[in-house]
Structure formats: structure tokens, C-alpha cells
Design brief:
The complex is a heterodimer of chains A (303) and B (244). Chain A is α/β, with parallel strands linked by helices and 303 residues long. Chain A is 31% helix and 22% strand. Chain B contains five helices and 15 strands. The chains are: A alpha/beta (303), B alpha/beta (244). The complex binds flavin-adenine dinucleotide, flavin mononucleotide and FE2/S2 (inorganic) cluster.
Chain lengths: 303, 244
């Protein structure tokens, strides 16, 4: 059996398989389906300083090999997380990472500071790429200078592993990735959802209450893979890849393109036990190809 | 097939099926269609403990339900069940329940009828449909209780909508359980509110995960946006913002 251990900054994960924010709740929802102890990490739902109601229903539209969502970061706020959810999440059986979002720099900083104080949360994933909130969110992630500004500010306040989640809705994601790296990020993760739209022709109405939403699932995989490959070449910090990963082969493709770890999102909805299966599948692949460590396949694309 | 657009799907399992409350649902994986990715939520329609089977009554409305209608005997269906919180009827004092259903919304009410009979209570069913063709399996429901019907074209029962039925003027009910299209549920809720009768409605929001993880299926309630898949699909109308 090969070693599955991978590193993201100072953080050592027992394997590269994580679950993507917003698709895995707080982990407990999946306990009946997957042995959480088996996972590299879970990334919990996007958390903001203040509670957010999210967007009105309908928030979801299925599209060919994918889905659009417009949840809009519904969550009860950082203090609620600390008071009511942290005690469960810290004992979930694997590493838990909090996805932090905001609508202004101060909010990101305050939320990050609050999470910094939680002993058993070794990392945050800074979401500067949510397409579903009116201000902030993605706005920070689409320009190098605003990305740098928020990452720098959070870096000063947050002392553990800082992962910055990048948007695919940009002309050149390597530019934003470099800005995040220069501002002190320990890692970048990508991709968040791609801005999309769905229309009900019979009713001549948009399907989502917000008209546009974020596309995820197998439909985005080729784009995600390309972006991970480009970003991995552009930065020295570890890259976390995601976007449409539905099985171990997909996960391995992202690692070959340069990802040090991967996240599984939408696929959890189709098979709630998929994350555990991907861990086993990566292990089989390494054995079959005679690799002694998963690190041997990171960026090992033969060009 | 139950009609040109609805069918019955019966599933069994190697181990004994888990206990399923009326109003809970299953998430069925649709295989063999490249257009359908997400599971489809379908109510528990009927449970047979002796045979270890669960039945689903499904209306064909799109690609997912059409693909499910093409399953052959012996095919396997990857299914998560039971999910959500169903109707609240256990440990509750009532004598004269009214079970109101519209279209395929009658599906969960058969299992509820079974459960109420097991508690020694005979329910009354009141169903609405466009025409007699749309009142599915009436004989099954009549085994569990009295059945009253309204159709829009008067081809069966009284003409009109469920809330127009003369039964409602004649008899007293002390609890209402309803499932069907939202406009129907809202008028049932208004009726129940006016009469001061407890009323529980089952909602059919679009779902992605079905287990409370994605927050796609929310209803705006007095407690804010809550997941229909996890906290529902059945809600007491007092919790909803429909009436005020
Ligand atoms: C808790 C719950 C229980 C349900 N129980 C049953 C049941 O017992 N029997 C049954 O036949 N159906 C039931 N439904 C509805 C069923 O899930 C949908 O009809 C089905 O998902 C449609 O899939 P499709 O691929 O065939 O259609 P799609 O191609 O997804 O949609 C076709 C058309 O139907 C509409 N539609 C899709 N989903 C819904 C929905 N949830 N509510 C209203 N309109 C919708 C779409 O807007 C579209 O116009 C239930 C839904 C929920 C949430
Ligand atoms: C329903 C839903 C909710 C999401 N919520 C968040 C969120 O709160 N924060 C975040 O950074 N990303 C969120 N995402 C994006 C995912 O974490 C992931 O980046 C994206 O879905 C691509 O991966 P996938 O194709 O494997 O789903 C969400 C995605 C979905 C489908
Ligand atoms: S469908 Fe995912 S939370 Fe209800």
C-alpha cells in the first residue's frame, strides 16, 4: 500500500481527498454513507461573520451533466458556528477546514480571526470567488489587486494554513493565483463554480430566483482541469484542484495536472459515499502503477 | 402503468427494509440517461412489510421520470431511503383525519392511510384531479377509508377543486394532511386556518442532495430558510409564511 499523505502548507493530510464547501454540510449529513475517518479533510459550508439568509428559492437548476446553484452563502454566522457546530465538527474523525466568506475586507478578517482561535481547525479556505452574493465574494477574486488586498489583510490576522479559493470567472486565473501567493497564501484551491444561467422557455422565465448562478459538476471538469494545470505551473505553493470530480480517475487527472489534493463537490449529491470510494481508487491506482507515494503523481503529467 | 402518464414502481431489498413513516421520501438514482444527473425525490407510496417491498407512484413529467418508467422487472435502482420528516400522526390525539391530495400528490397518502388504519383510525380521502384518468388507484384508497373526489371536468365525483367539495360543509374533521400542487395546498391551508383545524402539508421543492447538505431546497418559514428535504417535506402550516 502506497503512502497517501500529502501536504498543504504546514498542514499534513492523511490523503488528498477533501469534500468541497457547500456540498457536504458539516459532515454529519454524510455519516451514514461514508466513514469520515477515511477522508483527507472536510471543508465545511461557507461561513460569514454575520448570519445570512441566502437567496430566495428556486436556488437550483439541473443542466446537462451539471447543476446551477444560487444558494448565496446561507449560514448562521461565525459565532453560531463556534458555539453550536464546532464541538461536533472537531470530533468528526478527520481534519475539518472552514470556508470563510465575506462582503468586505473587515468581515473576512474578523471571521478569520474568530476561526483562528479554534484549536482543532488547522486551516481556512478563503472564498473570494462566490458568484452568488451581490457584493464582495467573487468581486474580490476577479481582480488581482482586490484579491491581494483581502488575502494580505487576512494573512495578518490568521496564523494557520491559509488556502485561497479562486474563481474560474476570470480572463487569467494565474494572475490572481500569483497575487494570492505574493500576499501570503499557503495554497490556492480552484475552481469555484462558473457563472451560468438557465431559462424555462415555456414560461419565458429564468429558473433561478437570482437569474444567474454557479455551474458545477462534470460539465465544468475540462475547464477546471485546464485552470489547475495553468495555475500549478504559475505558483510554487500547493494547488488544490476541484470541479466535476466524480471518481478516482478524475481525481488522479487533477493531481497529474499539478494538484496536491482535490475536493469533491456535486458528486456527493449523486453518490453520498463517493468520497470514500475515491480514496480507495487512488490507492489502487498507485499500487497498480507501482508508485510508493501519492506525491509521485503530483504534476507528473508526461508531456 | 397507472395511466398514460403515471406508473407504479415496486422495489425490494435483500435485508428487511427500514421502517418508513408516511410522508417520508426516497431519492432514486436515474441510470441510463445522459440528461439526468441528480437523484429524483419520490414519496413512499405503499409499504408491504410481509413482502418486504416499497411502492412508488410516479408521474412522468420529464426525462428522469420517463427513464424510471422504462425500468424492467429485475432491474436495480440505487435508492436512498427513508429521508426527511413525514407527517406527524404518531402520539397525536385526533379522531377524524382528512387526507387531501391533488394529482400525484396523493402518493404518500396511501401509506398514511395504512398507518392510520394500523392505529385504528379510518381516514377520509379527498382527491382532486383534472379528470377521472387523473385519480389514480382509487380502489387502493377505498380499502383504507372513504374516498371523495373532485374533477375539473366532472368526469368523476363533484366538479371543481377539492376545497369546493360539499363534504367540507357537511362533516367535521379535526386534522388535515395534504399533498399536491402548491396552489391547492394554499387553498387547503386557508380552509384549515379558517376552521381552526391543524393542517400539515407536504412540499415538493427541487432537490439536489436530499439530505440537508446543499441548502438548495429551502422554504422561507417563520424560522427563516429551512431545508424541505431535511426539516420537511411535511410542515405544519403555522410554520409557513403562506397565510399572513
Ligand atoms: C419530497 C418529494 C416527494 C415527491 N414525491 C413524488 C411522487 O411520489 N411521485 C411523483 O411522481 N413525483 C414526486 N415528486 C416530484 C418529482 O420529484 C419530480 O416530478 C421529478 O423529480 C421530475 O423529474 P424529471 O426528470 O422527470 O423532470 P424534470 O425534467 O426535472 O422536470 C420536468 C418538469 O417538471 C417540473 N418539476 C421538476 N421537479 C419538480 C418538483 N419537485 N415539483 C414540481 N415540479 C417539478 C420541472 O419544473 C419541469 O417543468 C416529489 C418531489 C419531492 C420534492
Ligand atoms: C450547492 C453548492 C453550494 C456551494 N457552496 C459553496 C460555498 O459555500 N463556498 C465555496 O467556496 N464554494 C461553494 N460551492 C462550490 C464548490 O465548493 C465547488 O467549488 C464547485 O462546486 C466545483 O466542484 P464540483 O464540480 O465538484 O461541485 C458550492 C457548490 C454547490 C454545488
Ligand atoms: S436538497 Fe440538499 S439540502 Fe435539501
Amino acid at each position: 500500500m502506497a503512502s497517501l499523505i500529502t501536504n498543504i502548507g504546514q498542514l499534513e493530510l492523511q490523503n488528498p481527498v477533501m469534500t468541497a464547501s457547500g456540498t457536504f454540510g458539516y459532515g454529519t449529513e454524510y455519516q451514514d454513507f461514508v466513514d469520515l475517518k477515511k477522508l483527507g479533510a472536510i471543508i465545511v459550508k461557507g461561513t460569514t461573520l454575520n448570519p445570512r439568509q441566502g437567496n430566495p428559492y428556486p436556488r437550483m437548476a439541473e443542466t446537462p451533466s451539471g447543476m446551477l446553484n444560487a444558494v448565496g452563502l446561507q449560514n448562521k454566522g461565525a459565532q453560531y458556528f463556534i458555539d453550536n457546530i464546532y464541538s461536533t465538527v472537531r470530533n468528526i474523525g478527520c481534519t475539518a477546514i472552514v470556508n470563510v466568506s465575506g462582503s468586505c475586507v473587515e468581515d473576512y478578517v474578523k471571521a478569520a480571526e474568530m476561526i483562528d482561535a479554534l484549536e482543532d481547525i488547522p486551516a481556512i479556505e478563503l472564498n473570494i470567488s462566490c458568484p452568488n452574493v451581490k457584493q464582495g465574494g467573487m468581486a474580490f477574486g476577479v481582480k488581482a489587486d482586490s484579491a491581494a488586498q483581502v488575502v494580505e489583510a487576512v494573512r495578518k490576522a490568521y496564523h494557520k494554513t491559509l488556502i485561497v479559493k479562486l474563481s474560474p470567472n476570470v480572463t487569467d486565473s494565474t494572475e490572481i493565483a500569483r497575487a494570492a501567493e505574493a500576499s501570503g497564501a499557503d495554497s490556492v484551491s480552484l475552481i469555484n463554480t462558473m457563472l451560468g444561467m438557465a431559462i424555462d422557455a415555456e414560461r419565458r422565465k429564468p429558473i433561478l430566483s437570482t437569474i444567474t448562478g454557479g455551474l458545477s459538476g462534470p460539465a465544468v471538469k475540462p475547464v477546471a482541469l485546464r485552470m489547475v494545470w495553468q495555475v500549478a505551473k504559475a505558483v510554487k505553493i500547493p494547488v488544490i484542484g476541484m470541479g466535476g470530480i466524480s471518481n478516482a480517475t478524475d481525481a488522479i487527472e487533477f493531481m497529474l495536472a499539478g494538484a496536491s489534493a482535490i475536493e469533491i463537490g456535486t458528486a456527493n449529491f449523486i453518490d453520498p459515499s463517493i468520497s470514500g470510494k475515491v480514496v480507495d481508487g487512488i490507492n489502487d491506482y498507485l499500487d497498480r502503477h507501482g508508485f510508493s507515494s501519492v506525491k509521485d503523481i503530483i504534476g507528473a503529467l508526461d508531456i | 402503468m397507472l395511466s398514460d402518464a403515471a406508473f407504479l414502481l415496486t422495489l425490494t431489498y435483500g435485508d428487511p427494509l427500514p421502517e418508513m413513516a408516511a410522508g417520508q421520501f426516497a431519492e432514486l438514482l436515474v441510470e441510463g440517461s445522459n440528461k439526468v444527473m441528480l437523484r429524483r425525490p419520490i414519496s413512499i407510496h405503499k409499504v408491504d412489510i410481509q413482502q418486504n417491498t416499497v411502492e412508488f407512484m410516479i408521474q412522468i413529467v420529464g426525462e428522469g421520470t420517463r427513464t424510471l418508467s422504462q425500468l424492467k422487472p429485475g432491474d436495480k435502482v440505487n435508492t436512498l431511503l427513508p429521508l426527511g420528516n413525514g407527517f406527524s400522526y404518531k402520539d397525536k390525539a385526533f379522531k377524524a383525519p382528512l387526507l387531501v391530495g391533488g394529482g400525484v400528490g396523493i402518493a404518500p397518502l396511501l401509506h398514511l392511510g395504512q398507518e392510520l388504519n394500523a392505529m385504528g383510525i379510518k381516514p377520509t380521502f379527498l382527491f382532486g384531479g383534472r379528470s377521472s384518468k387523473h385519480i389514480l388507484r382509487p380502489e387502493e384508497y377505498e380499502l383504507q377509508g372513504r374516498l371523495f373526489v373532485t374533477t375539473e371536468d366532472a368526469s368523476m365525483g363533484e366538479k371543481g377543486f377539492v376545497t369546493d367539495h360539499t363534504l367540507l360543509g357537511k362533516e367535521q374533521f379535526d386534522i388535515i394532511f395534504a399533498c399536491g400542487p402548491t396552489p391547492m395546498l394554499k387553498s387547503v391551508a386557508r380552509f384549515a386556518e379558517a376552521k381552526g383545524i391543524e393542517c400539515q402539508v407536504s412540499l415538493e421543492h427541487k432537490m439536489a442532495c436530499g439530505i440537508g447538505a446543499c441548502l438548495c431546497c429551502v422554504e422561507d418559514t417563520n424560522d427563516g430558510n429551512v431545508c424541505v428535504c431535511k426539516e420537511g417535506p411535511v410542515f405544519d402550516i403555522k410554520r409557513l409564511k403562506w397565510l399572513h
